[in-house]
Amino acid sequence: MGVRRRFLNLIVDNDVRGTKSLRCINLDRQKFFDDTPSPARRPNGSGSESEAGLREALKLGRITLPHPSINFEACGSVLQWSIDCFPLGGGRNKVLCADQSGRAFLFDADTRHVVPMPDLNAPKLSPFSVFVPGADADDDGSSLFVMERYPAQETLSVHLSHQFEAFVYRKLTNSWSCQLLPPPPFVTDPKYWHGRPKKISSYGVVGSGGWSICVSVDGAGTYCLDTVKHAWSSAGEWTLPFCGKFEYVPELQLWFGISAEDRRCLTAADLSATDSPPQIVDSWMELETPDEWTEMLDPQLVSLGSGRFCVARFFHTRIRTGDLCEGSVERYFTVVTGVDVVRHVPDGNGSINGHGSASSSDGKGKLGIIKHRSRSHISYGRDGNITAVF
Is the overall model pTM greater than 0.85, yes or no? Predict the structure, then answer.
C-alpha cells in the first residue's frame, strides 16, 4: 500500500472581495475516517430520500477551520477582483495562485515559502488545471497545465493559444517558465463554431506513464494532449463518464471521478484504452441529501492515495426565519465525506471479506466502497465559504 496523505487543503473565501485563504486540515485530528465504517448506498435511480437518510444528512459532524496558512489578495481592478488556485499534485503540498490579470505566485504550505512565478500569457476566465510530475526524482520537467473551461473559437491559423498554457519547472535553473500550448482540434474546427462555447466537462491524466492529459468536451468528443510533445489528438466522439477532474489509483488500476450521468455518485472506470469508449466498473452514492439542498458548485474529488478519497459537495439552502413577511436566512455549506475503495477477495466459502458494499468484478477481485464520516462547514455569506479542496 502506498503512502496516504495526512492533510486536506481548503481554499476559503474571506470577507473582503478578491481575498482568499489556504487552510490545511490535519486528517489525524479531524476524523473523516474510522475503523467502523458503514457501507455506501447504491443509487436507486429515483432521487427520492428516505426519512432515515434525511435525518442522517442533517446530523453531520462539523469541520473546524484551522488558522490560515496564508491569506492572499488579488490586485485591484476597476472591473473585478478574483484569484484562482491551482494545486500541484503528486503529494506536493503546494498551490499556484493567479489573479484576474494573470499575475501568479507559488506557495509551499510545508515550508511557508512564497515563490514568484512568471505571469500567465493571458488571464483566464474560468480555468482548470492538471499537474503532471516530471519523470525524474528531482522534479525536472514537472508541468502545471492551465486551460480555459469554456474555450473561445479560434481560426485554423492559430498554432499556439493564449487559452492553453503550461508552467514548466527546470531543475538546472531552479525556475519555472510559462509556455503557450496549441489548442485542441475542436477549438479551430468550424463545425463546432455554432452556439455557445463548448465546455470541457472532464479532465485528468491517462496512460501508464502519465504522459497524456485527456479532456472530454460536451458535444465535441474526447481529446488527448501529449504532455511531452505538446500535441493534441482526437480519441473519439464519445465522452468520459466523469464530471470534473478524475484521478488514477495505481493500486486498483482504475480511474475515479464524480459520475457525469448522476452527480450524486462516485464512479470507477477503466481508461487504459483511450482509443475506445471507457468501461464503467461501478458507481456508488456516498452521501444522501435533503431535496431542499441546492448544489452550488461542481462536486470535487480528492485522492489521498491507495484508494482513499475525500468527496466534497457544495450546497445552498434558504431557511425561513418566521412568517413570509419576516424573510429568510441563506445558508452556504460544504460537506466532505471520507471513503475507501477496496478490492474484496472471496474467502473459501465464496463470501466477500471486509466492510462496505461489494460490487462488480473486473477479473481482479470484487470492487467495493467503504463510507466513513461526513463533516460539514456552514457559512451565512461570502466570508468562510469553502470553494475548493485538494
Answer: yes
Task: Report the alpha-carbon distance of residue 256 to residue 247 in Å, rounded.
Answer: 5
Query: Which set of grid coordinates corresponds to residue 296?
Result: 452550488
Give the pLDDT confidence of 203-261 residue by residue, as tens digits: 999 986 668 999 999 999 999 999 999 999 999 999 999 999 999 999 999 999 999 99
As a whole number of angstroms, the distance between CA 178 and CA 228 comes to: 15
Q: How far is CA 81 from CA 23, 39, 84, 322, 385, in A?
A: 21, 43, 11, 36, 16
Best CA proximity match to 312, nearest among 1, 13, 2, 32: 32
Question: How far apart (Å, rounded) are the C-alpha atoms in residues 376 and 59?
Answer: 10
Burial of residue 137 (CB within 10 Å: 0-12, 13-18, 19+) is exposed
Residue 228, strand partner residues: none
Q: Return the H-helix or E-strand segment holding 114.
A: strand 113-117
The CA distance from 266 to 301, in Å, is 9
Q: According to CATH, what is the number of the domain 7-389? A: 2.130.10
pLDDT tens digits along 120-148: 999 999 999 999 998 776 788 899 999 99
Mean predicted confidence (pLDDT) in 90-111: 90
Cell of 131: 499537474
Specify the residue for cell string 456516498. 286
Cα 187 to Cα 94: distance, rounded to the nearest angstrom? 31
Q: CA dihedral defined by 42, 44, 50, 55, rounded to 10 degrees?
A: 30
pLDDT tens for 19-70 read 899 999 999 999 999 876 566 555 544 333 334 434 444 568 899 999 999 9
